[in-house]
Amino acid sequence: MEGPGCRSGRQLILGIETSCDETAAALVTADGRVRSNVVSSQADLHARFGGVVPEIASRRHLELVLPVLGEALERAGARLDDVEQVAVTRGPGLVGALLVGLSAAKALAWSRRLPLVPVDHLQGHVASLYLGEEPLEPPFLCLLASGGHTMLLDVRERGAFTVLGETIDDAAGEAFDKGARLLGLGYPGGAALDRLAATGDPESFSFPIARVPGLDFSFSGVKTALLYAVRDLGADGDARRADLAASYQRALVRALVERTREARAQTGTEKVAVVGGVAANSELRGSLDDAVFAPLDLCTDNAAMIASAARYARALPYPDYLAVDAYASREAA
Ligand code: KG4
Ligand code: ZN
């Protein structure tokens, strides 16, 4: 409602995300309503290389960041004057890619004397649960499974978590993508593998589930097992692709579900949530049916989750943020 004493403008958080191959901008209100959420994926550009080429990603972010930002403002029916804070992913991710978003965010915030909130990408994924009509309230156990990370997090309050376990080799999304590649599904193939698996028999092949100590994960063995299965089938492999996809997906999902259940038993946490690109997987969504899943459009990388996380992170006042740097990995944070 507009009127005296009720400022209609300057109440939006502008989120910017460029950590990998999605250029994204979003406008979110302080109480977690998503006014716009624009994601421009570069996947097609990287597909012929079978993975993200960092230098190409950075250049494409440069071309896209302003148009994507303009589109986010337009869809929200907002102007830059309505923005009261700029939030941007600082890491982990590809440093060159991150720097494009970070520089754009700094320039925008600086030119308008606004505060800037550097956001951790993983906190962003968790904060995808705090948007919309029914935001999740901590404490909860969170499975974060994406193309770059696979972790079990103990979330006691918004804006903080403790890592209970993580992958010791490949991330779950990476395992989906590598499997998809072996099955000729292109890059990034997680969603395509999910669709193909729906038409196959998940019991036709028995792929191993690695059981590493503690609450960690390992996905390199199952990927190699798929490689051998495809090789052994030779020319017959084509006809069995759906069965291979279904059985492979079954092994990946089982590994995620088992560890999540173990963590829940160990911590005694009542609520379980799942976030990150792999949270879009239909079998995982069906297998952890008592868990809260991030909304489908907020599972893969986006900027609404970054703006959401900014609400629970430290804002740097103008102009203290000009020297803020990006970081590639969590250890360097
Ligand atoms: O969170 P995200 O967009 O990027 C990272 O932060 O890494 O996750 C992308 C990952 C990719 O590996 C992609 O193949 C996977 O999420 N993914 C899926 C599905 N949709 C996306 N994996 C399995 N099933 C899906 N439906
Ligand atoms: Zn991500």
Produce the secondary structure layout.
Layout (H helix, E strand, L loop, with lengths): L11 E6 L4 E8 L4 E8 L1 H5 L6 H23 L6 E9 L3 H17 L4 E5 H7 L12 E6 L4 E8 L2 E7 L5 H11 L7 H8 L22 H14 L7 H27 L4 E4 L6 H6 L4 E2 L10 H7 L23
Parallel strand pairs: 1-4, 4-5, 6-9, 9-10
Antiparallel strand pairs: 1-2, 2-3, 6-7, 7-8
The site of zinc ion has 5 residues, from helix 4.
Describe the structure.
This protein has 333 residues and is of the alpha/beta class. The chain folds into two domains: 12-131 and 299-332, ATPase, nucleotide binding domain (Nucleotidyltransferase, domain 5, 2-Layer Sandwich); 140-294, ATPase, nucleotide binding domain (Nucleotidyltransferase, domain 5, 2-Layer Sandwich), CATH 3.30.420. Helix content is 38%, strand content 19%. The protein is built from ten helices and ten strands. The strands form two sheets. The protein has a five-stranded mixed beta sheet with strand order 3-2-1-4-5, with helices on both faces. The protein has a five-stranded mixed beta sheet with strand order 8-7-6-9-10, sandwiched between helices. Helix 9 (282-287) links the parallel strand 9 and strand 10 (292-293). Helix 2 packs parallel to helix 3, helix 5 runs parallel beside helix 7 and helix 5 packs antiparallel against helix 8. Mean pLDDT is 94; it is low at 1-8.
